[in-house]
Amino acid sequence: MKYKGTYEFYSTFIEGLTDTIPITIPYNLTPSKIRALENHQSLRFIHAGNWWNIKNPEKRSKEVILAQQMKLANENTIGFMSKNVQPGDLDLKEEEDRLKKIYSKKINYDKFLYWLLDSSKLIKYYKKNLEYANWARENNNSTIPIYCSIQVNNYESAREWFEKASNDGHNHFCIGVSEFLKYPKYKKVGIKKLFEISLGIRSVINENAKLHFSGVASYYLMPILACFGVSSFDGSTPVTSALAYGTIFNENGYSLRASVLQDNIEKRERFFATANKCKCEVCNGKDIKQILDTFSKDRKTRVIHNISIWRNLVSELNSKKNNLDKFLEILDSRINSKYFKDLLKIKDDALKKYDY
Ligand SMILES: [Zn+2]
User: Fold this and answer.
1) pTM of the predicted model, to two decimals?
2) Domain total of the chain
3) How far is the CA of 308 from the centre of ligand 1 (A)?
4) What 3 state SS string does 31-98 have?
5) CA of 232 to the centre of ligand 1 (A)
């Protein structure tokens, strides 16, 4: 379980984002966003779309995805994600009944919680995913790598299917993980699965192979997943939380609404009393009151600040990549949160379970 390379985080693209920030874009980007991206010179990762919100499946065929990805590519494009599929058309009555007894009666187990299914029921999908990735690799007319995307759901299926993919010649791999983190009630079991899956994938791919987790931007999960050999991430947390909820993050990944900080001096002091003062282009040279005024007036400044917190984390991962275990220890004492300690415990349990 070793990865020899650098780490990266790709932010969801929004207009006005500083043009040096690595971004992720969908294959079906709208014309207005294509124009907004004309001058954006940063690294970009091109997605294959979310299977659940495509109403017309013909618009998400493997051919359409690859053709659109090639159209959007430029010299800064680092990869195309291959088309992935999850259950939806399988007869899962028996399996659903079993899960409904264990978990909740209200949830659709063949959609977002497909990953709770017995992996023997999912083989048909693993096969399909690998087929799509192999097809994309054969038909890719560019030098941009295809990130082979397979929606495995446990350690064993991760090993089996990513080993097949590696044997088929892939050296860039991907899995969409947002469904694992979607429901608060299932988040802990989802996180456990993600740790085990990353462990399984990294154990069968090359040391220099890239492994991208799409749909996770958690400040607390990224460093742990990096330890398991996940090399890059994409997600919208720093952007959408800033826009939708007015949330800002501090240097330890702790978040609050900027408006709460404006009104509550005690909370404000706790929030900003961290070892590193933020030096992003918004905060630099301002006192706390000025910073909070800026945050409450201009939502874009919250995005810029939050993204800079994520960039700092990526820099730290890269500068400490030879000893990430030590980095996690430092992070643990810096963050000093029960939640993070719980995550570290889940990590240790996963390592023990599989004898690492
Ligand atoms: Zn800042």
Assistant:
1) 0.93
2) 2
3) 7
4) HHHHHHCCCCCCCEEECCCCHHHCCCHHHHCHHHHHHHHHHHCCCCEEEEECCCCCCCCCCCHHHHHH
5) 23
